[in-house]
Specification:
The complex is a heterodimer of chains A (478) and B (202). With 478 residues, chain A is α/β, with parallel strands linked by helices. In chain A, the strands form 5 sheets. Chain A has a 5-stranded parallel beta sheet with strand order 5-4-3-6-7, sandwiched between helices. In chain A, strands 17-16-15-18-19 form a 5-stranded parallel beta sheet. In chain A, strands 11-10-9-12 form a 4-stranded parallel beta sheet. The N and C termini of chain A lie far apart (56 Å). The two termini of chain B are 34 Å apart. The model of chain B has no long low-confidence stretch (mean pLDDT 94). The chains are: A alpha/beta (478), B alpha/beta (202). The complex binds iron/sulfur cluster (SF4). The site of iron/sulfur cluster (SF4) has 13 residues of chain A, from helix 12.
């Protein structure tokens, strides 16, 4: 492969992809890394394009750059008439202009292919195994599901990649997270990824790139693998990846920007070599048995605050060190009393969507629970497909009807309530069962309270009106 | 281009919270800007202001002793969460030039260096000692000497720290990465030619 220097000896998947993209390596190990795909959204890019303009620079490889507005876009049908919020409107207009002026690939707000950047990239076949993929967004880790080295960067780095198609990088350490055996019914990819963070903490992956492996990971669909890798960042890791296999190739084949014909054959031949050597060295190994993973929810304001739904709200004294104060603050913010069973926590809202769980499989799973059921009185529900094409497919399958019959709002694609930069927000004190990835204070709206969980757990919570073990609902006929 | 960082002596504000995330540093409603400047007034917005917009007098940066703080001493895993460079932009705009903690989230750590902010990682006992210094209002002045890679506490105790030589060099000299990388155009294009052979489908 290309690359001027290699790690010697047995290598991990991460080592191999990294090595294949090294343009130059300094004696201290700092590398100039080539970037195959650069995804851009409206919030973290305006200052980068402004920097290019001020310096009179061009985009080095517009054909490798893909832009889509997602964070600010309203998810109600009236968005065809434009964005009401003046600042949001300006950011999206700025992206329109930058995409046009610099000639990058672009999916504007009202294009059917528009959606959350991390859903659009894979859907359009921009994300392929063995690539380096970056975006000014921490959930770029999602693309690691394809066996790509994918991570978030800051706006100055966005400008650097736009101008040079490279990034200055130092190698991270290698961490292996193995999920052995098979998942139990009612347990999903979301429960895997939340349980890992509950196990390692939000700083457990800091300085590492994680490779997820083991039977339970192999068994996941691409959608499930994206859910797992999406939250690598919540575990502190820069990137998470999964070795590509036939599941990956089947997903990629035939997508608009996937290779075709002889190029496809050549690509697959290389992709099949993309796995960690048997004797590769790991700096850290975590092993979790799939059968030990239960449907989980978060109770606090950090993604590491994870417990099985069968547990109770913890007390600050259950923790040590700085976490005691953090837990006290979390419980106060979340309005929870230690000892309360998690399944007694009443909710006001359900949010199904985001780059973690806004794909077709997520909507199918939630709809399966909701078929013939209805939201509890007083609970507001919102389903926001991850892209226009996910929405279209769901409508073809009649899922929209199941959601609306159950009392949910059926929205257009975007980030929506995941971070509430558009009008979709929680009111102060409102409590939400959410399929997104962050339960930080104020994340979904000032004073809003977020409990993270899987799409089926969120759907079940909506029906029950409180957090609930989805397995009970799965056992009951409608 | 970038502001140099050599030696800083300033007031340190204690924030003994773990996992201070980017949503706390600069909440999302302030990400709608298309500029880098002007974010300082919204730094730590939801902790710093009451819902009616008045200042919360209990928040550290609102206390008279810390209004001019240039350093923050914080609990573990500072800057976790999103990639938003608005976080260091807001810190910088407020006047913060350095953050001391036991650990930093990766992307935040990178972003600091792009903006002339020095994140200093020290062992727990050193952070604990500096936190006590910082809590001691009047004696809260610390010195951070990047050249010699040492933090000097209020009582003169020295705490050496590690930093990547490349980053240290750029910060000391105020160098901008893009300009330096553009000088490597020849290597980049030769890489591209090789890659076009070996991975033509990309
Ligand atoms: S859905 Fe949420 S986490 Fe994903 S890119 Fe959008 S704002 Fe970020």
């Amino acid at each position: 492969m290309t690359g001027t220097t290699h790690t010697t000896g047995p290598r991990t998947l991460y080592d191999k992809i990294f090595d294949a993209h090294v343009v130059e390596r300094q004696p201290d190990g700092t590398c100039l890394l080539y970037i195959d795909r650069h995804l851009v959204h409206e919030v973290t890019s305006p200052q980068a394009f402004e920097g290019l303009r001020m310096a009179g620079r061009k985009v080095h490889s517009p054909e490798r750059t893909i832009a889509v507005p997602d964070h600010n876009v309203p998810t109600t049908p009236d968005r065809v008439n434009g964005i009401e919020n003046p600042e949001g409107r300006l950011q999206v207009a700025e992206l329109d202009k930058n995409a046009r002026d610099f000639g990058v690939n672009y999916y504007p707000m009202n294009d059917i292919r528009q959606g959350i950047v991390h859903i659009v990239g894979p859907e359009q076949g921009w994300t392929l195994p063995g690539m380096t993929v970056v975006c000014g967004d921490s959930h770029t880790a999602t693309h690691g599901a394809f066996g790509a080295l994918a991570h978030g960067i800051g706006t100055s780095e966005v400008e650097h990649v736009l101008a040079t198609q490279t990034l200055i990088q130092k190698k991270s350490r290698n961490m292996k997270v193995e999920i052995t055996g098979k998942l139990r019914p009612g347990v999903t990819a979301k429960d895997i990824t939340l349980s890992i963070i509950g196990h390692t903490g939000t700083a457990g992956g800091t300085g590492y790139v994680i490779e997820y492996c083991g039977e339970a990971i192999r068994d996941l669909s691409m959608e499930g693998r994206m859910t797992v890798c999406n939250m690598a960042i919540e575990g502190g890791a820069r990137a998470g990846l999964i070795a590509p296999d036939d599941t990956t190739f089947t997903y990629v084949k035939g997508r608009p920007h996937a290779p075709k014909g002889a190029a496809w054959e050549a690509a697959v031949a290389w992709w099949r070599t993309l796995k960690s050597d048997d004797d590769a060295r790991w700096d850290k190994v975590v092993t979790i048995r799939a059968e030990d993973i239960a449907p989980v929810v978060t109770w606090g304001t950090s993604p590491e605050d994870v417990l099985p739904i069968t547990a109770a709200v913890p007390a600050p004294e259950d923790f040590t060190g700085g976490k005691v104060g953090a837990a006290r603050r979390s419980l106060d913010y979340m309005g929870l009393t230690p000892g309360t069973p998690l399944s007694d926590i009443a909710i006001d809202a359900v949010f199904i969507g985001s780059c973690t769980n806004g794909r077709i499989e997520d909507l199918r799973a939630a709809a399966e629970i909701l078929r013939g059921r209805h939201l509890a009185a007083g609970v507001r529900g919102m389903v926001v497909p991850g892209s226009g094409l996910v929405r279209l497919q769901a409508e073809e399958e009649g899922l929209d009807k199941i959601f609306t019959d159950a009392g949910f709002e059926w929205r257009l694609a975007g980030c929506s309530m995941c971070l509430g930069m558009n009008p979709d927000q929680l009111a102060p004190g409102e409590r939400c069962a959410a399929t997104s990835n962050r339960n930080f204070e104020g994340r979904m709206g000032r004073g809003g309270r977020t409990h993270l969980m899987s799409p089926i757990m969120a759907a079940a919570a909506g029906v029950a009106g409180h957090l609930v073990d989805v397995r009970e609902m799965m056992a009951q006929p409608v | 281009m970038m502001e140099k960082f050599t030696t800083l002596t300033g007031i340190a504000a204690p924030m003994p919270l773990v996992n201070i995330d980017t949503d706390m540093i600069i909440p999302k409603q302030f990400l709608k800007t298309i500029h880098r400047s002007g974010l300082g007034k919204n730094l730590f917005d939801e902790m710093r202001y009451n819902p009616d917009g008045s200042e919360n007098p209990d928040f550290v940066l609102n206390k008279p002793a810390y209004r001019d703080a240039q350093i923050i001493v914080a609990g573990d895993n500072f800057g976790c969460g999103s990639s938003r460079e608005h976080a260091p932009w807001a810190l910088k705009d407020f006047g913060i030039r350095a953050v001391i903690s036991t650990s930093f989230a990766d992307i935040f750590y990178n972003n600091c260096f792009q903006n002339g902010i020095l994140p200093v990682a020290l062992p727990q006992d050193a952070v604990d000692a500096l936190m006590r210094d910082a809590e001691n209002g009047a004696n809260a002045r610390l010195t951070i000497d990047l050249e010699n890679q040492v933090v000097i506490g209020a009582d003169g105790t020295e705490y050496p720290f590690q930093i990547d030589p490349h980053r240290r060099h750029n910060l000391l000299n105020g160098l901008d990465d893009i300009g330096l990388t553009l000088e490597k155009a020849a290597s980049i294009s030769s890489y591209e030619q090789q890659a076009a052979q070996s991975r033509p489908w990309v």
